[in-house]
Amino acid sequence: MIPIDDSSIVRDGKSLILAMDHGLEHGPVDFTDVPQKLDPATVFETATHDAVTAMAVQKGIAEGYYPSYEDDVELLLKINGTSNLWMGEPDSAVNCSVDYAAEIGASAVGFTVYGGSNHEIEMVEEFRDVQEAAREYDLPVVMWSYPRGQGIKNDTKPSTISYATRLALELGADIAKVKYPGSKEAMAHAVDCAGDMKVVMSGGSKTSDYEFLSTVEAVIDAGAKGLAVGRNVWQREDPTQLLDALEMVIYEEETADAALEATE
Ligand code: FBP
Question: 65: how many CB neighbours lie within 10 A of its CB?
């Protein structure tokens, strides 16, 4: 197992994962205001920015588009996923094997676990197989650690997010992707609960440049190691400008104000 800091999806100890699995998870509705982004090639282009350490997509998108970007983008293959058409208790179908992810050039794999769901037991058992197979290929494992389901009233409250990072550490993830728990202090506690495992923040729905960069500044101050973000980057008119600013906040630990001033 290679140290996570030596992995190609990490730059100076941090990661900026550009996620574009929304067509499956949310449906085409996320592209309503940016119809040109329905073409996955447009988001792969964005992922060639130096700030981006990996692009997270599902198997079908990887098969179709990654061959044109394999020299410029690191692939994070999402191994499971669910559509918004599914109305049951939170669950996520395993739709790709780690063997196949490695075959099509993945540098890492991603897996959602809905702790607290009535399907938690099966999801954790599936994660065991994925995590152990990934070790065979030296592929880092990123857990989308999203507690939700019948027993979870508020999926972003501090104690839920701390549990999410701890669960990912205990199950053997290399990076946990979690929702923002609402404050820098709560994120710092979630990071502490993760031991030496890296925690990255999940982007969420699009906000203003300043609001988003300020939140990123807070989570980096809290000890998080970056971001896994979709809509807040590719739903923007100029994703490159925001990535320039994110590069400063994440890797140079600049403030949101300084990054905005330098990039506007
Ligand atoms: P965003 O930054 O756009 O929130 O994307 C992060 C992500 O985890 C995606 O990988 C995924 O498609 C989506 O959020 C799932 O969001 P949710 O399950 O909360 O609707």
Answer: 20
Check pLDDT > 90 for residue 147.
Answer: yes
Provide the percentage of residues in the chain whose pLDDT is more than 70.
Answer: 100
- Any catalytic annotation for residue 184? no
Residue 211, domain extent = 15-263
Structure tokens that stand for 167 in this block: 């669960």
**Exposed, middle or buried, 192 (CB in 10 Å: 0-12/13-18/19+)?**
middle
Respond yes or no: is residue 146 known to be catalytic. Answer: yes
Mean pLDDT over 33-37 rounds to 98
DSSP state of 116: T
Within a domain: 205: yes
For residue 226, give the CATH number of its domain. Answer: 3.20.20.70
From 15, 16, 25, 179, the mutation candidate for ligand 1 (largest count of ligand atoms within 8 A of CB) is 25
pTM exceeds 0.85? yes
Q: What is the mean pLDDT of residues 60-66?
A: 98
Q: How far apart are CA 208 and CA 236, in angstroms?
A: 10
